[in-house]
Amino acid sequence: MKTDFIYGKFINKDFCDKVINFFEDNHRLHRYDELHNRSFALMALKPVKFFKYFPEYADYLLDVLKDYKKKFQFSDFQQHSFALQQNIKIQKYKKNEGFYGWHYKIMVIQILVD
């Protein structure tokens, strides 16, 4: 388990390959954009649709969340419950153009997969 930065945990490689293959096989669902002079392909899925395609992700996500709450106990005490309220984004950057440091996305995705 990788634990640098704030918290990290890897999920099953076969599952990651499944998501990558879905992304690569569905170019019609891509939106192309540019951020900080880096172009990328993006797919945004509503959580309900994402879990329809990838139901096993819920188990991986719960596993990570349980470990996170063990490590950061304050995150599970007198806090709002955890929920996925925004679209799940799958992005692909060109080689050597990804973001390797702390960052966040401020993007409005208008085209959603129903």
Short description:
This protein is an alpha+beta fold and about 110 residues long. It has helices at about 15-25, 45-55, 55-70, and strands at about 30-35, 40-45, 90-95.
Question: Can you describe this structure?
Answer:
Strands 1-2-3 form a three-stranded antiparallel sheet. A hairpin with a 2-residue loop joins strand 1 and strand 2. The longest helix is centred in the middle third of the chain and has 15 residues, at 57-71. By secondary structure, the chain is α+β, with helices and mostly antiparallel strands. It has helices at residues 13-25, 47-53, 57-71; strands spanning 31-35, 38-45, 88-93. It has one domain (13-93). The model is unreliable at 108-114 (pLDDT under 50).
Task: Please write out the topology.
Blueprint lengths: L12 H13 L5 E5 L2 E8 L1 H7 L3 H15 L16 E6 L21
Antiparallel strand pairs: 1-2, 2-3
Shape: globular
- Helicity, in percent? 25-40%
- Poorly predicted tracts of residues: 108-114
Secondary structure tally: strands: 3
H-E order = HEEHHE
Strand content: 15-25%
Q: Give a short account of the largest sheet.
A: 3 strands, antiparallel
- The helix/strand class is alpha+beta
- How many helices? The count is 3
**Count of the separate structural domains:** 1
- How are the strands ordered across the major sheet? 1-2-3
Distance between the termini: 35 Å
- Averaged pLDDT, please? 76
